[in-house]
Request: fold
Amino acid sequence: MTATDASAFSTVTPIGAAVRRKEDHRFLTGKGRYTDDFSRPGQTFAYFLRSPHAHAAIRSIDVSAARAMPGVVDILTGADLAEDKIGDLICGWMIHSKDGSPMKMGSHPALAKGKVRYVGDHVAVVIAESLHQAKDAAAAIAVDYEELPVAAGLATAQEAGAPQLHDIAPRNTAFEWELGDRAATEAAFAKAVRVVSLDLVNNRLAPNAMEPRAAIGEYDAGDEAYTLWTTTQNPHVARLVLSAFVGIAPEHKLRVIAPDVGGGFGSKIFLYAEETVCAWASKRVGRPVKWTAERSESFLSDAHGRDHLTHAELALDAGGRILGFRVHTRANMGAYLSTFASSIPTYLYGTLLSGQYDMPAIYCEVDAVYTNTAPVDAYRGAGRPEATFLVERIMEKAARELGEDPAEFRRKNFITKFPHQTPVILNYDTGDYAASLDKAMQMADIAGFPARKAEAARRGRLRGIGYSAYIEACGLAPSSAVGSLGAGVGLWESAEVRVNPTGNVEVLTGSHSHGQGHETTFAQLVSARLGIPIDQVTIVHGDTDKVQFGMGTYGSRSGAVGMSAIVKALDKVEAKARKIAAYLLEASEGDIEFKDGKFTVAGTDRAVPFAEVALGAYTAHKFPTSEIEPGLKEGAFYDPINFTFPAGCHICEVEVDPETGVTDIVKFTAVDDFGVVINPMIVEGQVHGGIAQGIGQALLEGVTYDSDGQLVTGSYMDYTMPRADDVPRFDVGLTETRCTTNPLGIKGCGEAGAIAAPAAVINAMTDALGTEDVPMPATPATVWRICEAQAAARRAAE
Amino acid sequence: MALEMTGSYDLAVPREEVWRALNDVAVLKRCIPGCEELEKVSDTELKAKVVAKVGPVKATFRGTVTLSDLTPPESYRISGEGEGGVAGFAKGGAVVRLAEIEGGTTLTYEAEAQIGGKLAQLGQRLVAGTAKKLADGFFKDFAAAVGGAPAGASAADAAAEDGGEAAKAG
Reply:
């Protein structure tokens, strides 16, 4: 970094300034340290033997030949887990079915016990001196499988006679959940003048973090304590689950370190088999055990996202106003319920079905279905993209059926009075949906679209435009509220602000940064508040031995909840510093003002800078320690009183070449209301990344299993991620209504792009192609077939 | 994923001789591509070790080969299944028919195969082509082994099923 760049960090950084990311110096110079970068003395390497079958009973596992292979330290199976009384992996959110029964959680051992339920399921682990030796030995393990019929498809897994995954869950159904008022919704439909219906598939996605999952488990026989380095978004939750449920070690004997983590998108929230086994096995073998996923293992075993089948109906009155909305969704859970899987298609999905619209009645039913596929859990947006895709697709379709302008149809149904109680739990505190719609329409030059469409038609291209007026519930979440809905944890956040005697500051946070730039935005907040240069602030996170407790990063919660906790701790720091400053200035505490990093006696020029107060707090010479404790360090736990509600309007304009089926996104406009923005550059980066993933879902990505449950999109040869030339330049704008329920007025920005973009793209595609039936991913092959069928129909009509 | 192949070969050898060769372990071992071991357990059951490479996945398959529905000298069904360890599994079968023609015998087969695990995950795009190559290789070597160069061979057709549309995206 040049001196000029470094000087950028030696200033006080106000909220709202586009401060460059402090952490990028480390990342761009190759000094980041990820889990796989760590090596421990005497470490061994783990390799997991995975099931090639989607569903099979294991008659026997013969490891004798493998055990004799060079370099093999140990080979462990489910029988060894049982011997050590290691518990199953759990799902931490209890959902009750509409008949009141608790969800049916199939047993999920870290290593298979008698049965495998998806391709990639964990059969055995080989621990060896080198990775190659572990792999060679794994090839010598003889597993006698009895293949079982496979339930690979979500559409058929609940049918009578379908192969059963778990004895506990008849019809492969984990739960049949409902939300909303059925009777009121039926009544709304009874008086509807028009009913618009829609069937949708929300395609399954693989998370594809740049850094694959990895773990190193180490057991210290002297301290009888474990350390686990791992790629987690929430180290304390990982420790809690490993301790309280899996039973590896008590919490105070287990340290979880999440060092630099290269992307998560939700997939690193969960506690997986591999990380669990590395911790457990390190004691069994008496040496550190390391595992790093290969990309093909990531495709097989990282929890996937989305995968819904939905039928929905929207009831409208004669004026085109919404009377009611009813939804039936089948959500694929995969073979086991992953850590938070049950909450995704329920309380993070059904609660968002009101969108930005005043809907008097909503009724939603969700069946959670087991299939012989990898587990499905949160993926960027987690339930909210599925809700937005549904709401915004049916709104677009309704406008077309009514012959109304899609923007004006939305506008007349917008919620305009706040706070607004929806029929599906949530209470929106604030928002201005017309403002983001108007700004997006202006930026997207809606007025000029007909001319652009006509011009494209002259070139033989089909041009379409699509809206997505999304809303999300972020800032997860008020603890008592989520507790009443079945969460096994509270969703507050903690912070500790440690002011050192020389006036620099360390902030310990329970949030975890894996690409979001917390080391900058959190420091920016402290810099602005204390009036000290941003390079005087260090953010510490990701280590359970340093940070006392925290709930981690997901659900766009780190700004709204994590930073609010820092604000609360800063309030305490300032209050104490003010008392100390009063003694240093020999003035009354009531006369002390704190501004621009200085404590001043009001109406005078007598002042003492923050750093001097910090030093004074530690020397403790000038104040009575019987009244004020020495030192300057404060902690806080912040529990939000409501969710936050980021919302906005994305508009996508596409041009389709009917000859090739290739779709070109010619313009993408995103106007978001994230409340107060701390660092607009980082926010814009989050929006860009989210939209890219949303475009990926709409046009390119789709996890596919064949009818035997084999993963046929298991590498980048067959699973297409968006590349630079697949995404356009993004036109990004902001509107602002301040969140009313947290001290900074922040709403959160991490997921908006992924939530809003798929509907915007598909609404544009359906507009261009003149059919509502454009499945995701709308690949060139898919689009070309649609165009060919239309051409054939035209020829037949002539 | 499942795979189906059919093919037909004209051999300048009498049907009885072709039939004998089809039941001769030494001939089969020579002709099965990558076959390292093939030993008779009974008249209708054999144990096999076959090294196969599909795209980036190379594996040693250990498994059994079974002959059934024997109607000498007209037809039989040959089927096998093997576990390739970390590479996955392969299994399949073929109905082989022999018909007498002028100057020799026509051999036709209808085969189906299934693969799973890493083979399906990484080799998916290459499976149909590889399977056709293996089948062609077997019958070419088999024709040579029975002493009559193929009087005429129609290309084997291989078709992969169940590929899935998204699989072919991008």
Summary: Strands of chain B lie at 2-11, 35-40, 45-54, 57-71, 75-83, 89-101, 104-116, 150-160. Chain B is about 25% helix and 50% strand. The two ends of chain B are 20 Å apart (CA to CA). Chain B has one domain: 2-156.
